[in-house]
Amino acid sequence: MPKLSIAPVALAALLLSAVSAAAQTPAAPAAAAPAAAPSLPVVVPAGDVIETLKASGQFSTFLKASDLVGLTAFVKGLPAVTVLAPGDAAFAQLPAGEVDRLLAQANRAELQKLVLRHLINARVPFDTFKGAATSAPTLGGETVELNGDQPPTIGGAPVVQADVMATNGVVHVLGRIITAPAS
């Protein structure tokens, strides 16, 4: 069988043409990275719990409810409070017309109960219930379950962001409103 012999110049020309052809071949398109799920802006401390919620811009409905039932100044004055804060997106999950119904003058007692259900008269950082389930009394006199398993929930509502440490307490951002316990 004859040996194939290629002169060095011919070999160089052959390699050059192969490299040139490869460079002209379009590369396969890279797989598109999966789109990240939209997330809410991170809430950062900005003074006390009320100032922190206001500065975030994500809690206008909750803050309006607190104002309407006369609890905003009270909460600002508490030395240690935990706010289980449902954002505007959580209120938007309610049935159509429900927010307007709750904010109506005729429903102030119900609205006050809703706001008080989201307040604990103590600092309750996530570490106190991480990996466990416990409960705490709310300022409304109801008991709320704090579930630190994954994913964490409070009162059955998903915790979107835990441990926003304000000067007079802690804020846990919730993905929905805590509903009244079944009677």
Concise summary:
The protein has 183 residues and is α+β, with helices and mostly antiparallel strands.
List keywords for this structure.
alpha+beta; disordered N terminus; 183 residues; 20% strand; FAS1 domain
Question: Would you write up a description of this structure?
Answer:
This protein has a domain at 49-174: FAS1 domain. The protein is 33% helix and 20% strand. It is built from seven helices and seven strands; from the N terminus they run H-H-H-H-E-H-H-H-E-E-E-E-E-E. The chain has helices spanning 8-24, 49-56, 60-68, 72-77, 88-92, 98-103, 108-116, and strands at residues 81-86, 119-120, 133-137, 143-147, 153-154, 157-166, 169-174. A seven-stranded mixed sheet has the order 2-1-7-6-5-4-3. Strand 5 and strand 6 (157-166) form a beta hairpin. Helix 3 packs across helix 7 (108-116). The longest helix is centred in the N-terminal third of the chain and has 17 residues, at 8-24. The protein is globular and about 40 Å long. The chain starts with 7 loop residues before the first helix and ends in a 9-residue tail after the last strand.
